[in-house]
Amino acid sequence: MASEIKPTGVERHFDAAEMLVSKTDTKGRITYCNQLFRTIAGYGNKELLGKPHNCVRHPEMPRAVFKLLWGALEAKREIFAYVKNMSNNGDHYWVFAHVTPSFDADGDVVGYHSARRAPNREVLTKVIQPLYGNLLELEARQSNRKAGLQDSSNHLASILEEKRTTYDQFILTL
After folding, report:
1. What pLDDT score was predicted for residue 3?
2. What is the value of pTM for the model shown?
């Protein structure tokens, strides 16, 4: 889906009181999505169910952020992140996402749940967009994708170390 779509540069917005919700299985395939998610992403329910959640991934999202996200989920931890997603026509929308594993009665991860709110515009403009721009630039400098991801991840880690904080603390104090 998203890899065939070209970004338009047009941003879609949703109200601060609204929430996009989706659930996936452990492979990241969508098992549930609410109406607002479908509306802002521009897809019907049948188009999304069973599809990988990254079908809405915008190409201007640093892979280093997803590396952190999946690392937290694999460690059975929740994570918060600012994410730029892409709608079915190439428009984009920013979210402040809370992603958490879902557990069965035995404590095993059976999927993931994500609730996404409209982001704080000032944080987005002053912190997140410049940071993600730097991370993307580092990822693009390397012809080897793994090396680019490593450079980007190292840069983010150095920023956090300089601030003497963790990624979670950094994001939650913005």
Report:
1. 64
2. 0.93
